[in-house]
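Figure 3 (text version): structure tokens given as input.
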């Protein structure tokens, strides 16, 4: 409990100023970035900053009309940009569509410098399901990004072969929930209807959200082990910060008005600060392939850490990180 309180304080209050922002980010001409969920919230701000610095940015989102509106908005804000904005259909809640999305991207590009797995859902209505009938949070925050990333590993590897060491990256969205809401060892299992182990979704949607965020931390470490050094790609995860974003929309419905007001006043920050955290994870030259593989970034762009039990499960040979990766591999193989 003491560690949780320290983490809450150190990642929420008295935060140092961001070191990488739109004011000092170098020119990004020739770079290709894919930001999931970038039609709104933090992802939108990330896409806007990158485009303003002349990058080619893929706005990956489920709803085309919302993505195109976001693209138009970003272009209006940065009329002098020499970059490009492209829409990529991506529905992380439907595993049967993800391969087509990856193939669409691969048909349009021969390089990818940063995949930012920013998209996710936070505490949707209890009992919400994805297209394959599994818990919506697990499908959208765990299985969807896992499959999408695996399908893009070849282009990431090819890009890394021609770029400075450690500059091609994959980032995974965690949050304070990694520390505060995930169970001991990060995930919890149960027997499914077929008798095989599956992720436990019998608790509250707050619980499943915490599991999904711990899973993203595990993905940063496990993808890093399996593909990071070998492929020359830096995998890490991040807590973008406590933000007043659209991600809060379902959670806000569950709190009384006074609690929402208190949350806004004391804990939540402008969305742009979350973008600074993510851009640090994706572009900061401070991070290196040798020192930061599987690392965890905290607000507003600095190295951080997670609970000791999660670190143990990520580092041991047959820990929960490996078990989760192998489970995701099994569940998604028919869609790959």
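Below: residues designed for each position.
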């Amino acid at each position: 409990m003491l560690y949780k309180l320290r983490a809450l304080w150190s990642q929420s209050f008295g935060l140092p100023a961001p070191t990488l922002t739109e004011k000092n980010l170098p020119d990004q001409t020739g770079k290709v970035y894919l930001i999931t969920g970038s039609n709104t919230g933090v992802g939108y701000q990330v896409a806007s900053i990158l485009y303003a610095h002349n990058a080619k940015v893929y706005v990956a989102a489920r709803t085309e009309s919302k993505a195109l509106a976001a693209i138009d908005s970003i272009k209006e804000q940065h009329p002098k940009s020499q970059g490009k904005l492209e829409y990529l259909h991506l529905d992380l809640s439907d595993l049967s569509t993800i391969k087509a999305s990856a193939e669409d991207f691969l048909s349009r590009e021969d390089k990818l410098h940063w995949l930012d797995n920013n998209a996710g859902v936070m505490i949707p209505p209890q009992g919400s399901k994805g297209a394959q009938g599994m818990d919506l949070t697990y499908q959208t925050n765990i299985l969807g990004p896992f499959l999408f990333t695996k399908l893009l590993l070849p282009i990431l590897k090819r890009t890394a072969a021609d770029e400075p060491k450690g500059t091609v990256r994959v980032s995974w969205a965690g949050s304070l929930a990694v520390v505060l809401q995930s169970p001991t060892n990060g995930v919890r299992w149960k027997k499914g209807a077929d008798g095989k182990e599956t992720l436990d979704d019998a608790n509250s949607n707050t619980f499943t959200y915490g599991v999904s965020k711990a899973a993203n931390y595990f993905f940063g470490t496990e993808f890093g082990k399996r593909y990071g050094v070998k492929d020359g790609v830096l995998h890490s995860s991040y807590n973008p910060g406590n933000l007043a974003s659209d991600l809060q929309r379902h959670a806000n419905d569950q709190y009384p008005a006074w609690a929402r007001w208190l949350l806004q006043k004391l804990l939540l920050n402008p969305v742009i600060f979350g973008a600074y955290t993510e851009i640090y994870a994706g572009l900061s030259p401070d991070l290196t392939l040798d020192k930061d593989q599987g690392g965890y970034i905290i607000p507003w762009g600095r190295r951080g850490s997670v609970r000791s039990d999660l670190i143990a499960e990520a580092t041991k040979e047959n820990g929960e990180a490996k078990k989760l990766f192998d489970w995701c591999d099994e569940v998604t193989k028919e869609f790959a």
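The longest helix spans residues 205-231.
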